[in-house]
Amino acid sequence: MTEQSANETAMSLKAFHVVFIAVSIVLAFGFAVWELDVYSDGRRTVDLLFGCGSAAAGVGLIVYGRYMLKKLRHISYL
Q1: More confident residue, 52 or 78
Q2: In degrees, to the nearest 5, what angle opens at C-alpha 59 toward C-alphas 55 and 63?
Q3: Which of 2, 23, 27, 50 could form a disulfide with 35, with the two C-beta atoms 3.0–4.6 Å apart?
């Protein structure tokens, strides 16, 4: 395999990072919704803490994703 053909099939680090952060955001908010739903049934403090912590992590990931995209705007996705 030549170097050129390897580069054509490989995903860039920026593109992988964007996909990974997007999936992490969905996972964080999904877990937050699930934990808050569990909290509404049982009223356990630990479920509330996990739900709020996951929501905060989701917000933090959004802020980080925006920062990263602005910082790497001059780098191609391919």
Answers
A1: 52
A2: 165
A3: 50
- How far apart, in whole angstroms, are the C-alpha atoms of residue 22 and residue 77? 15
Helix axes 45-71, 13-42, angle to 10 degrees: 160
Percent of the chain with pLDDT over 70: 88
Residue 65 tokens read as 């994703």
- Cα-based distances in Å from 8 to 2, 42, 78: 10, 52, 8
* pLDDT(63) > 70: yes
Closest C-alpha to 60, from 38, 29, 30, 37 = 29
Residue 66 near residue 25, CB atoms below 8 Å: no
